[in-house]
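To make this tangible, this section ends with a sequence with its structure tokens:
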Amino acid sequence: MPHTFEPNLLRAPSGADNGILGRVPSQFVAQACKTLPDPACAVEDEMQVEIDAGWAGRVRLTFRRQRYSRPRGKTTYFSWLCRHAEPVSALGD
């Protein structure tokens, strides 16, 4: 019986759902990342931060904790990765 390819419709392609992240200046993403707790000690895997991003206005950034390790898996590291950005209305969302 020939194998047929079935695309995974439940998962969006990488980078497809990042909102307005590409329009937020990188210095504001870095500034928001500095306000987060140490990723190795954080309890939650996903955190949100609201910042004033200059000309982009008020923005809510969603960070996800990323785990990675060196070759052979002897040491594990954690970092914050900004995954999504959305505008926040002036009246408060």
Remarks:
- Residues 5-13 have pLDDT under 50 and may be disordered.
- Residues 71 and 85 are 32 Å apart (CA to CA).
- The radius of gyration is 17 Å.
